[in-house]
Design brief:
It is a single chain. By secondary structure, this protein is an alpha/beta fold. About 8% of the residues have low confidence. Helix content is 44%, strand content 11%. It has 16 helices and 11 strands. The strands form 5 sheets. A 3-stranded antiparallel β-sheet has the order 3-5-6. Strands 1-2 form a two-stranded antiparallel ribbon. Strands 4-7 form a two-stranded antiparallel ribbon.
Length: 432
């Protein structure tokens, strides 16, 4: 700007001072000089070779290739660069794809630019974890853009990064409320699910602080360690939720105490572990499987746990998801019979966790309306593939809201061999 105002001059001075502080770091370009005169201000920066991450994403998507190794390398380099900046005592505060330079050589360090909004961490090293929170959330949305090829900014979230329109207003630079700047968590999940391995999805959702996960990163070092974990980019990573299998012999129709104990042990473990648990009960017809579950449910109900069930049948596959719907409609009816305090707590938890998208779920589970009332806003209209992904995401949030370590929810699904593919997909999405 030929005639910068005081705010512009302040940003230039700040960027110059920050870059001088980062002079010995590989993650930022060098500041060579600054000029500050009455009506003119400028800083002179060392040339940084490469292209912006925004250009890199545009080029990568236009090539129609999905090189997981190449993407992983970029993700790790960006995270290491942010780690380097934080280690030097600086918070960037304005991380975007256009503020990251990808070098021509893969083994060269990524460079961050545009430090006008940057700030310094406490010199005594006792800065609050929240000081880095803005950068880590921004990093998560940058990861989203790398995978999806779309901008994460709320005002242009439908615009592809293939666009050459780089004109962004300065009004949101330096703002700390990422939720107002970026698209919603369900939109992120819907766009990414199925494109990347589940462990990497978890990293992104944790970075943007989505309610679907309780994990929260405190430092870029933690993110870097997870990105380097051997399972993060394995497409066929195994679920860690399998609690065991109970097999019923055809020759034994009595003595189920061991099986009952196994179920009770899992229920006790869930008081301290938020992760879902799975028990498969198998055996021949007539060996007492259903009787065991009925007995277990009576014990669990006396202990204040919620138990709901559904039964698949061979001819019910024409109505996908119907068994899951019946099971959770039954759960919400049980809640409505449990007293005002439980109804109020359940309603508050659901609305707090799911937010304005709850209307998607009331359209699927009619009994949910009895608990929370009729939503005041209609859910946004999205294409069919994204609507299915959004429903999976919100279904996971619903489970998280109603099933807690202090009050676990037990879902019994009978005759799983007749389950439709949609129901199996939703069950898997909750377990992983």
């Amino acid at each position: 700007d030929q005639f910068p105002d005081e705010k512009d001059i302040s940003r230039l001075e700040n960027e110059y001072n920050v870059l001088k502080h980062l002079a010995n770091r590989n993650s930022a370009g060098a500041a060579l000089n600054q000029t500050l005169r009455s009506r003119a201000a400028a800083i002179y920066l060392d040339w940084v070779e490469g292209i912006t991450l925004k250009e890199w994403i545009r080029t990568t998507n236009s090539e129609k290739t999905s090189d997981l190794k190449r993407i992983r390398n970029v993700l790790q380099n960006i995270t290491y660069g942010l780690l380097d900046i934080h280690d030097a005592g600086v918070v960037h505060n304005n991380i975007r794809a256009e503020h990251i330079i990808i070098p021509p050589e893969e083994d060269s360090p990524v460079k961050f630019i545009s430090f006008g909004s940057a700030s310094f961490l406490a010199a005594d090293g006792k800065s609050s974890p929240d000081a880095r929170r803005h950068d880590l959330m921004s990093l998560g949305f940058v990861f989203y853009e790398i995978i999806s090829g779309k901008s994460s900014r709320r005002k242009s979230h439908s615009q592809s990064l293939f666009s050459n329109n780089d004109n962004e207003s300065k009004e949101d630079e330096g703002q700390n409320d990422e939720s107002k700047l970026h698209i919603s968590h369900p939109e992120v999940y819907s766009a990414l699910v199925g494109k990347m391995p589940i462990p990497f999805m978890r990293i992104i959702m944790a970075l943007i602080e989505a309610n679907i996960t309780t994990k929260r990163y405190q430092t870029a070092s933690e993110v870097y360690q997870d990105l380097n974990h051997s399972n993060t980019f394995l497409l066929d990573s195994k679920m860690s939720t399998y609690a065991g299998q109970l097999h019923f012999s055809q020759d034994e129709l009595y003595g189920r105490s061991d099986h009952l104990t196994a179920i009770m042990n899992v229920s006790q473990r869930m008081y301290s572990d938020r992760s879902p648990q799975v028990i498969l009960v198998s055996g021949f017809s007539g060996t007492g499987k259903s009787a065991l579950i009925k007995h277990a449910s009576e014990i669990l109900a006396k202990e204040g746990h919620y138990f709901t069930s559904g039964k698949f049948d061979q001819f019910g596959q024409a109505e996908p998801f119907s068994t899951i719907i019946d099971a959770f409609n039954g759960y919400f009816r049980t809640v409505m019979q449990s007293g005002e305090e439980i109804i109020s707590n359940t309603k508050a938890s659901l609305l707090r966790t799911i937010g304005s998208e709850v209307g998607v779920l009331t359209n699927i589970f009619p009994s949910l309306v009895e608990v929370i009332g009729t939503p005041v806003t209609d859910p946004a209209q999205v294409d069919l593939p994204e609507s299915q992904n959004r429903l999976k995401y919100l279904f996971g949030l619903m489970i998280r809201a109603i099933a807690t370590p202090s009050q676990p929810l037990f879902l019994f699904l009978d005759d799983l061999q007749w389950a439709d593919s949609s129901s199996l997909s939703f069950i898997k999405s909750v377990l992983t």
